[in-house]
Design goal:
Elements lengths: L2 E4 L12 E4 L1 H14 L7 H10 L1 E2 L6
Antiparallel strand pairs: 1-2, 1-3
Length: 63
């Protein structure tokens, strides 16, 4: 099951609208890099645990 991380669900000073979707390890890597480079977080196990706890299953879009 693909996972989704969506910045719109969390308040931020930048009003970030980024959504990241993919396999869990891909989303974790990209979301961690994004949190550090855009939102100024410090990378580490605590950040990754917080991100992992917010991931949701992707809802398939049907044509």
């Amino acid at each position: 099951m693909r996972k989704v991380a969506d910045c719109r669900e969390y308040p931020s000073e930048s009003n970030c609208s980024l959504t990241i979707a993919g396999e869990e390890d891909e989303v974790m890597r990209a979301a961690s890099e994004h949190a550090v480079s855009v939102h100024g977080h410090t990378d580490g196990p605590e950040l990754r645990e917080q991100i992992r706890a917010t991931l949701k299953d992707e809802v398939p879009q049907h044509a």
